[in-house]
Amino acid sequence: MEKNLVENFVKVYQSLSKDNLATLADIYEPEIVFQDPLHIISGLENLTQYFANMYENVQSCRFEIESSHFSEQQIFLYWTMHFQHPKLKKGETILVEGHSRLKFVGNKVICHRDYFDVGAMLYEHVPILGGFVRSIKNRAAV
């Protein structure tokens, strides 16, 4: 069963675009709670709007799934996000590694939490601020 849950979820995400956001209803419960380091979103309608806004602002966004693990109605996905934003890194592709914890009720996700480095995704690619963030990371690594 877990293989089908992963395959269905990944299939929707791999094909997701601003033109087919209705497919989110195929994988998420109406009461979905979505959380990442920048947002907490409750409800499928709000999540759909979040994705609509995101796709309006990026040139491209896709996820490469490296592995998945299933445990007690939860799936853990490890991924690399490839995205392009016209105002970050001169529009070049940015790679961000992360993972997601998905809690299921039946065959749909009720809780989706993403974990990733916001600095690697955003702050390091903003002029002036990016150099400052990289400097802090380098000092902390010593």
Keyphrases for this structure?
142 residues; alpha+beta; six-stranded mixed sheet; 4 helices; 32% helix
Task: Describe the fold and architecture.
The protein contains four helices and six strands; from the N terminus they run H-E-E-H-E-E-E-E-H-H. By secondary structure, it is α+β, with helices and mostly antiparallel strands. The mean pLDDT is 86.
Write the layout of secondary structure elements.
Blueprint: H1 2-15, E1 28-35, E2 40-42, H2 44-57, E3 60-71, E4 74-84, E5 94-105, E6 108-116, H3 118-121, H4 129-141
Parallel strand pairs: 1-6
Antiparallel strand pairs: 1-2, 3-4, 4-5, 5-6
In short:
The chain is an alpha+beta fold and 142 residues long. 32% of the residues lie in helices and 39% in strands.
